[in-house]
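Researcher: Dear colleague, please comment on this protein.
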Amino acid sequence: MSIPDRIILTLYTILMAVVAVFLVLFSLGVIPTSDVASFAATMPGRWEYAVGGVVLLLVSLRLLIAGLGGTGISTLSIGTDKEGKIHVGKTAVEDYIAEFTNDIFGVHSAKAAVKMADGLLTVRVNASIEPGINIPDTTDEIKQLVKKNVLATIGIEVKDVEVFFKHIKPKE
């Protein structure tokens, strides 16, 4: 889920909490029925409430789609043969890259993200590195290993590998 989706989800959750508190107070009789009825009587003919309802509906649909994983591509099309297309799960490729990246001396907590454009793969590796490890040499090793292993296993050429070390700390 992206950052804007998380912000929307947080605001939506707060709104739903307020509505839930209102419903509890109304059902327990703390808020009189006459107050709710008089508020409901002001709603017809007010465009502001209609706009609010439409916005709430659109936010609900967006969160539903994001929650079901309907955003983004979950498979990579790696080729076509005489019997059909060949697909591989994006998560499978990312997990595979993270697995062999973690096997490099001094690298741990690696995670990978892949994007495919024009039949070429772009890879971003986020990892932690132990103190005393040469970052430029390790970065080159990761890039070469990713390009070699992905081409050998999946058959897709890797256009670019971006390596980002988020922490310099020993393995826990």
